[in-house]
Amino acid sequence: MKRAPDKNKPILQESLTTGGQSLFAEEKVISMKSAVEKNKPKLQDQDIYEGEESLLTEEKVISMKRTPDKNQSLLNESLKTGGQSLFTEEKVISVKPAVEKNKPKLQDKPLKTGGKSLTINSKVTNDKHPLKFENAFKFISEKARNYCDEAEWFYFLEAKKQFLSNDNFGWQTLSLQEKKIIHGLEEYKIPAYLGYRFSFQAGINRKDYRKKPIFALLEVSSACNLKCPFCFQSDPSFTTKEFMGIIDTKLAFDVIDQIDDMKIRGITIASRGEPLLYNDLEILLDHIGTKENIIEIKINTNAKRLTESRLRRLINTPLNILVVSTDHYEKEQYEKYRHGGNYENFVTHISKINQIRSEYNRKNNLYTRASGVMVDKDMDKSKFNDFYQQYFDESASVTLTAMWDTYSNNLEDSVDLSPCGMPFEKLYIWHDGTTNPCDVDYKSLLSPGKVGPLSLKECWENMQNLRDSMLSNKRHLHKPCDRCYVN
Question: How many other C-beta atoms are found inside a 10 Å radius of the C-beta of residue 165?
Answer without folding.
Answer: 9
